Amino acid sequence: MTNNSSIVGAKIKGIREAKNLTVEEVAERSGLSVEQITSIETNQNLPSLGSLIKVARALGVRLGTFLDDNDELGPAVCRAEDRVSSISFSSNATGARKNMEYHPLAQQKAGRHMEPFVIDIQASEERDFQLSAHEGEEFIYVLEGEVEIDYGKQVYTLRQGDSIFYDSIVKHHVHGAKGQGAKILAVVYIPF
User: Fold this and answer.
1) What's this model's pTM, rounded to 2 decimal places?
2) 183 and 122 in one domain?
3) Burial of 68 (0-12, 13-18, 19+ CB in 10 A)
4) 70-74, 120-124, 126-130, range with the lowest pLDDT
5) 103-126 in b/e burial notation, b at 16+ Cβ within 10 A?
6) Rounded distance, CA 85 to CA 105, Å?
7) Which domain range does residue 46 map to?
8) Spatial separation of the C-alpha atoms in residues 131 and 11, rounded to whole Å
């Protein structure tokens, strides 16, 4: 599979420069540090999805802008055999550990407010999770395995066929249960 992770940093930097914004201005607008923005732009660290959403909002673009270049206004069909690109995010702020592989399902659709993904969650014994929050809503449907969602002060365990819909403004984290891997369908809605 082709991995777009290195492209995301270049796109962020390109958009920032095209808008004549400094790293400091994007950091201030997003609530992230200058070091975080620099490490994302230079691909030193994988951003969390929450951080990437904050950067998108600070730049005034959709999250999908970092993942595609298409302008299709009609429906977008994503065939399983054609789904070759993916992007990785770190879901733990303590480092750039890659534990989720995102497969976008609507790259061709321009002007969208929802971002659908199939996400492969890698098995990990790590339990030192950094919860994140951002504007919008998320829907998760478990395709394979078992996942845990830390949501506020609650922990929800979901098995194959289970789903959850929540407000993303509440601090949350999604990971494989009991150190297992899993596969989920996730739809992230971000008001624009």
Assistant:
1) 0.66
2) yes
3) buried
4) 70-74
5) bbbbbbbbebebbbbbbbbeebee
6) 10
7) 2-66
8) 25
